[in-house]
Design goal:
By secondary structure, the protein is α+β, with helices and mostly antiparallel strands. It has seven helices and eleven strands. The strands form three sheets. A five-stranded mixed sheet has the order 6-8-9-11-10, with helices on one face. It is rod-shaped.
Length: 426
Amino acid sequence: MTARNDARSAHAVRESSRHVPFGFLQAQVTRLEAFSVIFIGVILCLPPSIFFGIEISHLRSNAQRLASHFARAITMHVEKSGFNVQAISPLLEKEMQSNSIVSIQLIGAANTEIMRVRDPGGSWFEIEVGASFTPSTAPLKELRLSIDDRPLLYQTARVFGIHLLIAILVGLAIHWMGIRPLHRAIEELETMQAQLIHSEKLATIGEIYAGLTHEINNPLAIILSRVSLLVRAVKESRLPADLLPDLEMIDRHGNRIAETIRGLLQFARRSSFDLSGTDLNQVINETVTLVEKSFARDHIQIQCHLAPDLPKILGSPDHLQQVFVNLLNNARDAMAKGGLIKLQTYRNSVLVVAEVEDSGAGIPEDLKGRIFEPFFTTKSIGKGTGLGLSVSYGIIRAHGGDIEVESSPGQGALFRVILPIADKHV
């Protein structure tokens, strides 16, 4: 795998920036969510509870009036005709049917039950009230009446159901119109800040490298030119032949330094590209044609799924080809035993997207934040400079685009190049 260079730094920057000011914003949103839950709970529970309390109070009052009414009626009957269970029972049954009463119980002087008339249907729970008799109704002392509460419970359940529906609608409205957009806005701000910090970091590094490369490049060019002259002198037998291996080694390693310097210059370069209307599919096809034979020798297959009628972008074809060569080489290096690389393009709103996906070993989570950093590489020494993805990142940013990476260990990696669509007149 090449320099699978930067997801961790962006992730680390995001995590560090989460504290200020995003930690405060997230805390405020969390408080808002808690307040919303309490508010929805109040809408759901408080009105039905108040309704139930008021209605059960009314039901108890009505039951008390009925009990007093029955006590007076029984008193009048006993005073007129004397106490007779067979005569009182039909009277109570008639009153029960017309007043939704569950049971009427007559209690004697010793708190013993003298008679009870009860609705066989019963109820879930009973509201019981009592009324005392006058001494003239002896042996009767008290009347106890239980009223049917089922209509009240049904009505309360309907009220609760209505408020449940209201609470659900209010909760969805708060989530979709308030909480969710806030979370999304905070995440976008975090991403933008992380990208800004990362870009500023790379810009600062680029300025430092630009100065260093200038200081190194000039003496290196002189050294390499002198080595070339010495090699020519050995070959012309003007110097001892045993010097040739040492000179060739100096030349080889000097050229490695020169290659690194060229990469640094590309990374640090601040000059604008010559941008024009560019067919990204054509750039990718030319890149694949350039590398597919050498990839085939490494048992690597390339599949292209390029969207027809893809809009043009405003770009530099040569620099974009360099980006895709770097990404393909990166994918090849991740598949030492061969594999499959998939190339895909498509339009996403006002953007053109190109994806390079490999079937390699993937990128460890702790390294994803560093894959775009200069000189970061997982290759062995001498296998790469760690500048390929850094240069690619700089080129795409110079085009007004971005590069994203998705990967899991053992699941391969996907690099997503995102570029703006060119103006129609280009």
